[in-house]
Amino acid sequence: MSVEFLSLCAISVLAFCNIAIFYGFYAYLTELGIPPAWRGPLLALEPLTALLVRPFLGRFLSLGNGVRFMRAGMALATLSLLCYPFAKTIPAIALVRMLHGLGFVTVVGGLLGTLTAFLPRRKSAQGFGLFSVTILLPYALMPPFVELVLPHLPGHGAAYALAAPLMLPAFLLLRPLGRRTRALAQALHPEHLHKPSWAEVRQGLRNPSVSLLIAGNLCLVAAHSIVFFFMRDFAVLLGAGNPGMFFTYANAATITLRVLGGHLLDRVDKGRVLVWAFAGLAVLLPLFGQAGRPLALFGLAALYGSGMALTMPLLNASMLYVSPPKLRAFNANLLMVAVDAGFFAGPFLGGMLLAAGWSHAGLFCVGGGFMLAAGLCMLPVGREMRRLGAEGAPEPAGPAA
Asked: Is the entire prediction scored with pTM above 0.70?
């Protein structure tokens, strides 16, 4: 693994800590007395902002300017985190959520735009699997940590502000990373630094596999966001002493499988594994609503984490595999557009359904439906990848991570 890859992993851990702490944001809005009809939209406003900005942001990203994007995004994210304790009304919360979304999408856009230059396609699943551990680690650690410190804080808003200092070490890592990426940019073939035109983007989207991977990722993240934002209240209803432990069990399973078995992800039939993983998750999510006590729920959490260990890195690796070199960075950000859309759709729909009287068990059934739809999207993608493998698609030039 290169120094650049390790630096990006460290920045990713620090950046995603400021998102992982929002697992209890729906409960926080309830505590503030925000009307039920507004909780879902306010919850979804941060990813909605990212969704609207990212397609335009992606066209201007390259390896040469990715570090500048990260620096600007970290500044905006830090400012937004410090503002949360002072935002008590619907307009104030909306403004802070939009600022947070703008900052976070800029950080992640620069992060992924830089990362794609360091991942060779034939080891891409392993690389994405290892990198995704840095995204998951905050989700395993921050929820139970926040639950422990909340009794000693004025409220959730203060906890969100406490995440702001985590951006400081990330800022320090950007300076040496910037020098190394500029040097790499000068050494790479111009094709890898090419900023695609809208005509090239439209042509790339005509590839059914690209569109289906985006749709599959959207469905996956919509389902996951329902679990992420609404599991805390459900675990409390079951009597869980520390509801954040659901995410610890789930992400511990995910991280373990990716670390121990990540090297196998590039050897499997990605399409077939994705179909079966999504089918298993489609059955599993509705079972959350049938868990009668916390221990059973946490056992299901480990199974859920095992399924997520397969889906996310294989989706990213599949997109890298079916994309031409000039569109790899852009298409990687299109997958993140799907993430934004999923994180908007899940909490928005979930909030509306809860306000209409639905139960948490009903929400988890909706999540299972999203997982089933994602699996159906993978059927033709798998056939296309097997065809490309039979034709011996060439490995792109570029350094290994």
From this structure: yes
